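Dear colleagues,

As part of the handover before I leave the project, I'm documenting each prediction I ran so the next person doesn't have to rerun anything. This entry is a single chain, and its sequence is reproduced below.
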Amino acid sequence: MLILERVIMHSTLDITELYQYGERVTFKKGDNLAQSVTGETSGDIYILSSGICALSSISCDGKETTYLYFKKRQFVGFVPLMNNLHLNYYGKKSFSIVAKTPCVAYRISNRQFQDLLGFPSVVSLMLNTLTENHIYLMEHFHSSKNEPALVQFCRFLLDQAEPCESGHLALNTFFTYQEIACYLGMHSVTIARMVKSLRAEEMIEKTGHQIQIINPEQMAKLITEERKIDY
């Protein structure tokens, strides 16, 4: 406990310092990290170390909806453990956090997690995660209702792309046209056309199946000005 206190009593804390208090686990593509079905939840939380997972649900007719992609070095699945509200459930609701690619995470038990909550720096990390996710969900909802398709797509690219060896921002090849189309509520043909137009505008390029953003400043300007580009 003394080691624990020395590490996490600081006002700022790198989430990787909490790996030592969890068990390293791996997930295959399609595995569930956490699930909530009419109020039933798993008892553990995770810190995602690598890979991509998503908060999603499946409708009665089998259609999957993705609400949020989780980034590495984030808490995953801890909200139910902190929620003492007993909500009314009308009908079956199923929300899962699914590994979209092979993932590595650190699993922390409910009991260990409750101990960690005694440290303000851990609570601060969780609040940061909650705030980031809340803002992302609100922006995505607003964008889907009010912004042109091309603006939505560019927002997605800038949100999900990460620095790569070339120095550009690159989208994980997991994000196929079909995956992006399902998330944005569009058709995969629309995504393909927008990719072609953005390449013509020299904002992105493709290396194999990977999209790389080569002019993020111009793409951000397109979003803020809602510039129209034919596609």
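The mean pLDDT is 85. The radius of gyration is 19 Å.

All the best with the project,
I.
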